[in-house]
Amino acid sequence: MSARQLRRPLALAIHGGAGVIERQLLGAATERAILADLDRALDAGHAVLATGGSALDAVEAAVARLEDSPYFNAGHGAVFTADGRHELDASIMDGHGRRAGAVAGVSTVRNPVRLARRVLEDSPHVFLIGGGAEQFADTQPGIERVPNEWFGTDARREQLRQAQQREQNAWQASQDLRGKYFGTVGAVALDAHGHVAAATSTGGMTNKRWGRVGDSPLIGAGTWADARCAISCTGWGEFYIRNAAAHDIAARVAYRGDRLQTATEDVILGEVPAHGGDGGAIALDREGHVAMAFSTSGMYRGWIRPDGTRGTAIHHDP
Ligand code: ASP
After folding, report:
1. How far is the CA of 29 from the centre of ligand 1 (A)?
2. 184 is an active site residue
3. Which end of the chain is more exposed for a tag (fewer CB within 10 A), N or C?
4. CATH of the domain at 113
């Protein structure tokens, strides 16, 4: 049945990460290229919704498109670990039925969000890590594999070089963590059946070590969806984990009756910074309300509202 026949509102929102995004450093040509890639991700997700596809398929399509862009810290373009490799994390959640799949520390899966989806569909588990997740990927014919070097770009290698240089000064290194993680990607969608879903994918933080995993693949921290709303977060993952940020936004809507935008702002501009973290989130409810908030200077983002209006933005522009 097509979306038109069901006559339900459709909506989609995406992010490409929050952080310190200086206009001057970005440059006009790069900014245009980033906005174009956000637009392509919106198109990929919306094409699914407009033909009656599920919110789950839409967020997977939008996030996979962002993973393929070199501008975002997920898939191709992921940040480097301290030992010059890439370890990728992703999760996906279907609000209708509360199904979820997640992977962490994968190193050869081109689109980690697609592997997270396979975990949701084809395994009895929710969360697979490292070598085990790679073994599971071996059993999934549709999962494209690439050598680990494929994820790297010159810009990310330069970020690692700078981070390691600054690391020699311990105080500066601790300051460096703030705002140095932007580029994680995520999507939230509402389909013609009134179901919502969320997905998030990341390379984590530049110079990470010891198998560090952030909030992005953790259900309830970086990603959440239930019958009412769907949320994808980006930011300093340790603080999003400690605050169960994505679930906290949904809980405020469910238990206190908060408006989605109020709940999103209270967590992202209130709770997370109050504990020392920063970042952003996108959220969407089953009425099609889109909520966004970020405590950093920018968050790459895009949206298509139920009335068909769409946009992309980076900074706090109106
Ligand atoms: N939240 C991600 C992490 O901590 C990073 C990001 O959002 O850019 O791994």
Report:
1. 25
2. yes
3. C
4. 3.60.20.30
